[in-house]
Amino acid sequence: MKIENLLKEKNGVKFLQQRSLQKIVAVALFFVVGFYFISFYVDFSFKKPVSRYEFLNPARNFWHTEDLIINFQPLRDFLNQYEKNPNISIYFEFLNTGSNISVHQDAQFYPASLLKVPVAIAVAKKIERNDWRWDNKLVIMAGDKDDKFGNMYKEQTGSTWTIEELVRRSLVDSDNTAHFILVRNLELAEIEDVYDHMGLKNFLLTRGDLSAKRYSVILRTLYNASYLSEGNSQKILQLLSLSEFKEYVQSGLPDNVLFVHKIGVSKEQNVFLDSGIVYAPNRPYVLTVIVKTADESEAKDIMKTVSAQIYKYVSEYQKEL
């Protein structure tokens, strides 16, 4: 009797296990089949986020309301004093809202070393296409050497340098020799593509002059990573943040504020330029200042005054309640 009871008990357990397994399979099939039919009627794509405010800029969710400044009239009134001088071009753009101010927005000047940034961008794009690598090496030719900016002209002709080092020297030290090595090894179409993307089509066919407003597009392109990948946009901006040239726009900023920028100097044409992104806490903005004068100290004073006033307004602004 005990053996019979034991067999019955084992058979009962086995039966219950089979029933449980059948239930699990049935439930699973129910959900799979149900999801299959529901998918005909419900769009499960995640291409567009659902929002109660579909007509509003979704980027507003990333900023505090107090950092979305649109009233720049007092700052505009201050900058209007430079309208009297046709040899000054200023462009300011508040990146959180796109609000901007231009002084002589159509006045064009030779951008000098600012042109090194589009070339660096063209290099990064060539690397993204897998035509180059950052650790590839290029040769210094005698025709590349230029002693106006940087010390690379002192290096031996025929020596080789990595592309990464050449870009670093071009942007951080504003080294002309490094820049010319990169230009020589790029295709003209590769540089043209950078300018075309930024709305400067056929720029290389012109005299090469730019206004402060037009040049600022290059910085916005890097900030938004709209041409290069996020990684390479970050790389170029990080190199620009290492610039040792602090006597222009940066002289009007607090020491602890990050300024990513490129300067340009053409003493032959008496042009001094500085263009960059000021990373004011939660309130970043683009500022480009170009001054045409034979007196560099005058250019420095103008840039310092403009920079300090803009930073003061942006950093201290509070909305009226």
TrEMBL record:
<dbReference type="InterPro" id="IPR000871">
    <property type="entry name" value="Beta-lactam_class-A"/>
</dbReference>
<keyword id="KW-0812">Transmembrane</keyword>
<dbReference type="InterPro" id="IPR012338">
    <property type="entry name" value="Beta-lactam/transpept-like"/>
</dbReference>
<dbReference type="GO" id="GO:0008800">
    <property type="term" value="F:beta-lactamase activity"/>
</dbReference>
<dbReference type="InterPro" id="IPR045155">
    <property type="entry name" value="Beta-lactam_cat"/>
</dbReference>
<keyword id="KW-0472">Membrane</keyword>
<protein>
    <recommendedName>
        <fullName>Beta-lactamase class A catalytic domain-containing protein</fullName>
    </recommendedName>
</protein>
<feature type="transmembrane region" description="Helical">
    <location>
        <begin position="21"/>
        <end position="42"/>
    </location>
</feature>
<dbReference type="GO" id="GO:0046677">
    <property type="term" value="P:response to antibiotic"/>
</dbReference>
<keyword id="KW-1133">Transmembrane helix</keyword>
<dbReference type="Pfam" id="PF13354">
    <property type="entry name" value="Beta-lactamase2"/>
</dbReference>
<feature type="domain" description="Beta-lactamase class A catalytic">
    <location>
        <begin position="89"/>
        <end position="290"/>
    </location>
</feature>
<dbReference type="GO" id="GO:0030655">
    <property type="term" value="P:beta-lactam antibiotic catabolic process"/>
</dbReference>
